[in-house]
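Appendix B, example 12.
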Amino acid sequence: MPVHIYGHPVDMEPLWEIARRHKLEIIEDAAEAHGGEYKGARCGSLGDISCFSFYANKIVTTGEGGMVLTNNESYALRVQSLRNLCFQKERRFYHTALGHNFRMTNIQAALGLAQVENIEAAIQQKRWMGSEYGKRLSRYKLLQLPVEEAWAKNVYWMYGILLDAATGMTAVDFAKRLADRGIMTRPFFLGMHEQPVYLSRGLFVGEKYPVSEYLARQGLYLPSGLSLTQDQLEEVCKVVGEELPDGGKR
């Protein structure tokens, strides 16, 4: 289950090889990667099933909801049934399984289709944002910035930065300092093994994942909306530099 996190595609070749060797299906999470590309192929076309999110902060949004894609007819029919209370084509009010009401409204669909027509402009704006942040923040040695691998097209759904532990601050500390200067941020995701809902059920107890934990403690993303202006971006970068120890140089 590869996740194209924050708009950068996963390196799929090793996963395809594992899937072939063990006869596994690939469920591709492209929720944050509308328009992202892996070796010229669009995210969402790289697995047996792919999932997109249309939540309000996504590059294409319908306010809420999402979409499942597959070129497997049996999977498609199964998903269509599950999203519609498991109605059967042959007998409408006859159910052989429990389904859900995951239907998108026509109004939501119309909103999404209109945004799809403008997706290339949205991707261009996101990539501009990523480039401009990169130019201005690369001077700060205490920050680790997003990358774009040679085989990838990053759509920078969110511009995430990783704060070096040498700052003596966590992302929460840094976010508070930025908020005091009028810059809103969001934290990185917290690992499943640290979620109380799972720990209370006896899952992941005693398990440690240092890389995941470090990312969760030190990562945050900067203002990344499609309406972000040049002046706003420059102000964000200015404040980030001013709030880093020694101007972020050490």
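Residues 119-137 form the longest helix (19 residues). The longest strand covers residues 49-53.
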